[in-house]
Amino acid sequence: MSLVISDILNHLHINDINEAFSTGSNWGSSPDTEVKDIFSPTDGKKIASVKFATADDYNSVVETAAKAFKTWRTIPAPKRGEIVRQIGEQLRANKKELGTLVSYEMGKSLQEGYGEVQEMIDICDFAVGLSRQLYGLTMHSERPEHRMYEQYHPLGIIGVISAFNFPVAVWAWNAMLAWVCGDVCIWKPSEKTPLTAIACQHIAQEVFKANNIEEGVSCLIIGDREVGELMANDSRVPLVSATGSTRMGKAVSAAVGARLGKSLLELGGNNAIIITENADLDMSLIGAVFGAVGTAGQRCTSTRRLIIHENVYEAFKQKLVSAYSQIKIGDPLNENNHMGPLIDQDAVNLYLDSIEKCKAEGGKFVVEGGKLEGDAYRSGCYVKPCIAEVENHYQIVQHETFAPILYLIKYKTIEEAIELQNGVPQGLSSAIMTNNLREAETFLSYAGSDCGIANVNIGTSGAEIGGAFGGEKETGGGRESGSDAWKVYMRRQTNTINYSKTLPLAQGIKFDL
Ligand code: NAD
């Protein structure tokens, strides 16, 4: 497999991965620089040795970005959009190689690796159009011969902290919008997936270079949580967009909040599908199984709970058990497999621990889990997807376990189902499977799902880039990607212009000299 990696790097014209992305003069030159080995969860082999940033490296990158911002913001937004269009073209040209790298480094199936690159391409297209639509409103002034309007200006440096499970798409969601808005970006990817980040940064940087744009509009900083902490505490970074666990989001939010900066938080989910007695059960089965085992249960939108009407509960359970017996687990680069590995051994231990906790609370497993052994699973990161019958209030059910464990919960009335669905601390994605209009509309009403995403006859997993993406409660409240999510990357300014010969005050206040 190391051959594949070198082929991919050659294809992307990356000779030295530690040189391919450097921004800032001092990067990696300090004697304190740590070099860490990165291993693939797919076969356990070492993929690369990557330099991790020191605090000095971080500072130098911020300085480079701050300087670049002063020029980048002067370029008209549609011209910035043109550069993003070219980045999209490069991503298109390299979709196969990048998608393969995502699959190998992160462990998701090849189809999902390609899908992730497609998401980057889609957001580039979206951002190009957006670059001509950064609209503000005009208002009628209460004073004669006055004009009032609002406009949006870029914020400056956008810090993007991303998680391992979407190692490239989340960066693109943020960076492409931020760039057309006139901001510059510093990306701190997950320390578990630096190679895909280096490849993307390299692609973007080449496009900026070809357009004679000064270094620093696109910056990458490889490092672990300490680098994320530097960013969260740094008042030179007006917006920190952080994707990851709720634990991480609480830390970032507190640090950014303490300096009255802005944060955009995309955190953990605990997503449920309600399967009503009026559901198409075959369709529901595909949605539920893809949602639970896709990306080995490591999507923020993975289906963790199925809330099933008592009249169809047994029948649907049998369908699930039968479907799970057909799931093929193995090398994600082999397109015959449905499910690849978890990201690392720690994730396997958390999965095993959650199964024990579930059993201790009374959970009854109808499909048993466990770690897979043998040569095909030599990385030690492969597990069996499993299903347990539980009560919604179990502590383990209230918690997001980032692994393919699916919980079944029975309900009687639609009101009870919605209460169960909402009865967890997280609020990302939710779904109802029904052909009954009343059930569907109740689920979508103010008395329905409390999540940022609520779907009808679609599972919880997977979203299109055109909508605003994000969730409520412990998911963090952030929205990124489509709709008007761009506004968070800009500052709004209200302008009032007096073209009269007097100075009337607002609210009719008199002040004569
Ligand atoms: P994680 O929280 O361990 O790490 C995410 C990123 O945050 C990494 O880059 C990490 O280095 C950094 N980080 C960790 N602690 C930090 C701190 N105190 N300050 C600053 N940075 C810090 O998450 P993970 O294991 O990589 O990803 C899985 C989690 O991400 C799941 O909870 C999943 O639901 C969530 N996620 C959410 C979304 C969403 O859009 N809502 C998308 C993808 C993943």
Write the layout of secondary structure elements.
Blueprint: H1 2-11, E1 34-39, E2 46-52, H2 55-72, H3 77-93, H4 95-106, H5 110-130, E3 138-139, E4 146-154, E5 157-161, H6 169-181, E6 184-188, H7 194-210, E7 218-220, H8 225-232, E8 239-243, H9 246-258, E9 262-266, E10 271-275, H10 281-293, E11 303-309, H11 313-324, H12 345-360, E12 364-367, E13 370-371, E14 383-384, E15 386-389, H13 395-398, E16 405-411, H14 414-422, E17 426-427, E18 429-433, H15 437-444, E19 453-456, E20 468-469, E21 472-473, E22 480-481, E23 490-498
Parallel strand pairs: 5-6, 5-8, 6-7, 8-9, 10-11, 10-18, 11-16, 15-16, 18-19
Antiparallel strand pairs: 1-2, 3-4, 4-23, 12-15, 13-14, 17-21, 20-22
The chain binds nicotinamide-adenine-dinucleotide.
Mean pLDDT: 95
Q: In the CATH classification, which architecture of the largest domain applies?
A: 3-Layer(aba) Sandwich
Q: Find the CATH topology of the largest domain.
A: Aldehyde Dehydrogenase, Chain A, domain 1
Strand percentage, roughly? 15-25%
Helix content: 25-40%
Question: Low-confidence stretches at least 5 residues in length (pLDDT < 50)?
Answer: none
**Strand order in the sheet with the most strands:** 12-15-16-11-10-18-19
Kindly give the count of domains. Answer: 2
Radius of gyration: 25 Å
Subunit structure: Homotetramer.
Family: Belongs to the aldehyde dehydrogenase family.
Pfam families: Aldedh (PF00171)
Organism: Mucilaginibacter pankratovii
